[in-house]
């Protein structure tokens, strides 16, 4: 998901914001959660379940990781997809902003 964050930072804020973000990740200031093996299977099942939307791999992976980690709140500009998805551990995600 880092590539999507980098794209959005560069596109909406500028290249310096993207560079600072990558530097923060590289230095360990911002920890990165990797996909676990089971997240891929869950993402694939979410993509199939929401194929009429369609839900892409990035968003499905975020949902899978959130379910695994017990996350209930998601920071996103994509309210369309995340408001439709019904996670397995809660009725719906709290979307911010």
Q: Quick recap of the structure?
A:
With 97 residues, the chain is mainly alpha-helical. The chain has 5 helices and 2 strands, in the order H-H-H-H-E-H-E.
List keywords for this structure.
5 helices, mainly alpha, 2 domains, 97 residues, 6% strand, two-stranded parallel ribbon, 2 strands
What does this entry look like structurally?
The chain is mostly helical and 97 residues long. It has 5 helices and 2 strands. It has helices at 2-13, 15-27, 37-49, 57-69, 79-84; strands at residues 73-75, 94-96. The chain has a two-stranded parallel ribbon with strand order 1-2. Helix 1 (2-13) runs antiparallel to helix 2 and helix 3 (37-49) crosses helix 4. The mean pLDDT is 95.
Strand content: 5-15%
The largest sheet has its strands arranged as: 1-2
Query: Helix amount, in percent?
Result: 55-70%
Q: What's the β-strand tally?
A: 2
- Domain count, please report it: 2
Structural class: mainly alpha
Principal-axis shape equals globular
Identify low-pLDDT runs.
Answer: none
> Could you state the order of secondary-structure elements as H and E?
HHHHEHE
**What is the CA-based Rg, rounded?**
14 Å
Report the end-to-end length measured between terminal Cα atoms.
Answer: 19 Å
Instruction: List the total number of helices.
Output: 5
User: Largest sheet, if any?
Assistant: 2 strands, parallel
Mean pLDDT: 95
């Amino acid at each position: 998901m880092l590539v999507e964050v980098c794209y959005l930072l560069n596109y909406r804020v500028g290249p310096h914001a993207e560079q600072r973000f990558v530097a923060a990740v590289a230095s360990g200031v911002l920890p990165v959660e990797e996909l676990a093996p089971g997240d891929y299977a869950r993402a694939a099942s979410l993509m199939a379940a929401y194929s009429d939307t369609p839900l892409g791999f990035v968003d499905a992976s975020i949902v899978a990781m959130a379910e695994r980690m017990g996350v209930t709140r998601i920071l996103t500009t994509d309210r369309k997809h995340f408001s439709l998805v019904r996670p397995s551990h809660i009725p719906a995600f709290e979307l911010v902003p």
